[in-house]
Amino acid sequence: MATINHNRAKKIYWILLILAVVIGFLVYGIFQEQFSLKFLVIFSGVPFLLFVTGLFGMLWPAIKPTGDTSYISHAIIAGIIFLIMFVIHTWVILPRICPDFGKCLGI
Questions:
Q1: CA atoms of 75 and 6, how far apart (whole Å)
Q2: Mind listing the pLDDT tens digit of every residue in the chain (107 residues)?
Q3: Which residues, including other chains, have CB under 8 Å from residue 77's CB and lie 6 or more apart?
Q4: How far is residue 92's CA from residue 44's CA, in Å, rounded to a whole number?
Q5: What is the distance between the alpha carbons of residues 100 and 89, in angstroms, rounded to a whole number?
Q6: What is the 3 state secondary structure string of the chain?
Q7: Which of 26, 40, 86, 93 has the most CB atoms at less than 10 Å from its CB?
Q8: pTM of the model
Q9: Whose CA is closest to 24, among 96, 78, 74?
């Protein structure tokens, strides 16, 4: 099994977190008027993916399973964290981008 350079991995996760915030700030703060609402809603998954990946990477050492019996608890903790992040994205961030979500997608 290959050894993992934890400092390098931690830097990568921090870069992903910072990149997600910068992309979110630029696209949804400064340049929001230059993009269509449909693009903004669909593209919102990119900073969400980067942020969740960075967050899970940073939290992995704290929730990493140690034995066979703890894999279920790890899956539950990881699922709860993802669910919280998804709910924040869906019910807080997306309504701020487009208050009438159905019209933004053309539905």
A1: 22
A2: 455 677 888 899 999 999 999 998 998 888 888 988 888 888 888 999 999 999 888 888 777 777 666 677 777 888 898 899 888 888 888 888 777 766 766 65
A3: 63
A4: 12
A5: 15
A6: CCCCCHHHHHHHHHHHHHHHHHHHHHHHHHCHHHCCHHHHHHHCHHHHHHHHHHHHHHHHHHHCCCCHHHHHHHHHHHHHHHHHHHHHHHHHHHHHHCCCHHHHCCC
A7: 40
A8: 0.76
A9: 96
Q: How far apart are CA 26 and CA 84, in angstroms?
A: 24
Q: What is the per-residue pLDDT for 2?
A: 53
Question: Tokens 């399973």, residue?
Answer: 65
Residue with tokens 């340049």: 31
Quote the tokens at residue 51: 């942020």
Alpha carbon distance 65, 5 (integer Å): 19
